[in-house]
Each structure stands twice: as structure tokens, then as C-alpha cells.
Amino acid sequence: MPYFSDDVVSSNIKELSRLIAIVIDDFGYRNDWVFDGFLDLDADLTYAVIPGNLFSSSSASMIYDNGYELVVHMPMEAIGYAPGEVNFRLLTSMSESIILSKVLSAIDAVPNAVGMNNHQGSLFTADEFGMKRVGSVLKDVGMYYLDSLTSPESVGYGVMSTIGVPVVTRDVFLDSKDDVNHIVDQIYRLAYVADNKGYAIGIGHIRLNTLLALQESISGLQEKGYEFVFVSEIVSSSSK
User: What angle do CA 139, 144, 145 make, to 5 degrees?
Assistant: First the structure.
């Protein structure tokens, strides 16, 4: 069963500074040399797997075996039409029992995941009823929640905090523009956020330009004293 426990993360994160956690979304769509490149990055990174796609299971296994952190990238209803993941997508029109069943099925489909973040979800993450049901499952299985903040109306952080689920929010989207120079700039913007509050969480996607930007940026930031950590380490610090 997936779990999240303070004994598997550093106990003195609050005393450290300049921590960077990067999450790469949308694993499960591809199994190619770009995928392999993400498994060669020399940093503690968190990879989010969408359940139910052709390469979801194999991606989850390889991510775990290569020592990266694994989370469930939970499909949630967006504002407007969004295709795909119909077997797992959470809708605001769903009953409590259906939401609970889909969340549990998604967790079972991504073994060894320690957390969850939302895939799309600009509509669902603003729905308190639905997010409370998601949170109840996460609390039961001991997983954290990362609010990707795909909507300024998201209630994810507040709901999870209220019911006792460890939770953090995204600081910077890295690759809203699919351009290497832009992504590098966003990674350094993430470092600036870490300078000011001690840590920062960025989200990108399993794309070639994102891979190239990370290959270009990681070692330089490490040399400047930034530490790349799993999201669970920041969650642990924030929840104490």
C-alpha cells in the first residue's frame, strides 16, 4: 500500500534553505528516449504517472526502480472539454462512492506512489465536496497531496489542511511555453523563490525541451548551493 511517513524523510528540513522540488507530470503516455532521459537526470525528482495509459504501469515500475519519487497524477475535470482518462477522471457530478472508488483504483494502478497531484482539474479542484472525498482517501492510505493550482479557485490546500492530509502547492509552472530558454528561465525563477522562502516547487511535463532545460540547469544550480529534493521532503517540513 502506498504510504507517506516522516521517518523516510529528513527531520531537519526547516533548518535547510534553498530547496528545489521539481515534479514532472504526464508519465504514462510515452516510452522512448525522452522518457529514458528523465531517468538519467542526476537529482532527486518527483515523477507523476497518469493511471490507465499504455505505459503507465511500466513507467511507474521504472521510475521507482531508478530511485525517483512517484506520485499519482489524478485526472480531474477541467473547465471545458478535455479528452482522455475517462476511466479515472473525477467529475463534479459524481457521487461520493464513485469518487472514492476512482481514487482508490488510481492509487492501485500506480504502485509505490507516496502522493498525488491533479491532472488538469480546473473545475474539480474548486469543488469542496469532491476534494473532501479525495482527501479522505489520501488520509486513509497516508499519502500527501500536491495542489498543482490549475485554477485560482482551487480549494485543495484548504480542504487537505482541514482534514489532516499533508499538503503543499505548486510555486512555478516550468513549461507553459514549450521552449528551452523559457523553461531554463522558469527553473531559475524557481531558484529565486527558494531564495526567498527556503524552498520552491515547480511543475513541468515529460517533453524533450523540458528534459533539455533540466539537463542544462541542474548541475549549475547544485554548484550554487541549491539542493534538489523530493516533494515529500518539503511536505514533511510544511506539516510539522
Answer: 105
Structure-derived torsion over alpha carbons of residues 134, 139, 141, 142, reported in degrees to the nearest 10: 130
The full set of domains in the chain, from first to last, is 6-238 (3.20.20.370)
CA angle 183, 186, 187 (to 5 degrees): 90
Cβ–Cβ under 8 Å, residues 125 and 155:
yes
Taking a C-beta distance cutoff of 8 angstroms, is the pair 170, 149 a contact?
yes
Separation of alpha carbons 236 and 12, rounded Å: 10
Please state the length of the chain: 240
Amino acid found at 45? L
Instruction: Identify the bridge partners of residue 117 per DSSP, sorted by sequence position.
Output: 73, 146
Residue 158 main-chain phi, psi, to 5 deg: -65, -45
* Cα-Cα end-to-end distance for the chain: 24
pLDDT, tens digit, for every residue of 14-62? 445 799 999 999 999 999 999 999 999 999 999 999 999 999 999 999 9
Print burial letters for 110-133: b (CB count within 10 Å at least 16), e (below 16).
beebbbbbbbbbbbbbbbeebbbb
Total H helices, total E strands in the chain: 8, 9
**Model pTM score:** 0.91
Cβ–Cβ under 8 Å, residues 78 and 108: no
> What percent helix, strand, coil does the chain show, rounded to 5?
45, 20, 40
Rounded to whole angstroms, the Cα distance separating 222 from 239 reads 26
